[in-house]
C-alpha cells in the first residue's frame, strides 16, 4: 500500500466545557457565532502546553468572568460540527465557581452571561451552540461524575 506522505492526518479538536450549577441554575454564556447568537457553557479549545484542568479554568474566566474549580469530569463527547468538516472532542467538567472579584473583559463575541434553569435551556435547543450542550447538562443532572484522577498529564 502506498501512503501519501502529504495527506493530512485526521485529528479531533480538543475542547473543554464547564458545568456550573448554583441554586438550580446553570452558568451559560451567550455568544456571537457565524450562525447568530448561541448559548453554550463556558467552553473553548485546549491550548498547547496547558492541561485540561487549566484550559477549563481559563476558558471559564475568559468567557464568563467567573473563577472555576473543577470537581469532576462529567463526560467526554465526540461530535461532528454541523457542516461535518470538523470533529470536536469535548471534555466536560463540573465544579464550583466564584466571581473573580474584579471586572473582567470577556472574550470577543461574548454578549452576555446568564444563570438559567435547565428547563429554560432545554426550551431553547435551536439556540444552543451544539446538541452536546444539552447532553452534558443531562448527564450532569443524572449524576454522571468521574473523579479528576481519571486524567493524567504525562508531559
Question: What is the strand and helix layout of this fold?
Answer:
Elements: E1 13-22, E2 25-33, E3 36-40, E4 43-45, H1 52-64, E5 66-80, E6 87-99, E7 110-117, H2 118-122, H3 131-141
Parallel strand pairs: 1-6
Antiparallel strand pairs: 1-2, 1-4, 2-3, 2-7, 5-6
Could you explain the architecture of this structure?
This protein has 155 residues and is of the alpha+beta class. It is 19% helix and 41% strand. Strands 1, 2, 3, 4, 5, 6 and 7 form a 7-stranded mixed β-sheet that branches. A hairpin with a 6-residue loop joins strand 5 (66-80) and strand 6.
* DSSP E strands, number: 7
Structural class: alpha+beta
SSE run = EEEEHEEEHH
Q: Gyration radius, to the nearest Å?
A: 16 Å
Helix content: 10-25%
- The overall pLDDT, averaged over residues, is 93
Q: Which blocks of ≥5 consecutive residues have pLDDT under 50?
A: none
Described by strand count, sense and barrel closure, the largest sheet is: 7 strands, mixed
Number of helices: 3
Q: What separation lies between the terminal Cα atoms?
A: 34 Å
* % residues in beta strands: 35-45%
Shape: globular
Describe the structure in brief.
With 155 residues, the chain is an alpha+beta fold. 19% of the residues lie in helices and 41% in strands.
Key words describing this protein structure:
single chain; alpha+beta; 7-stranded mixed sheet; 7 strands; globular
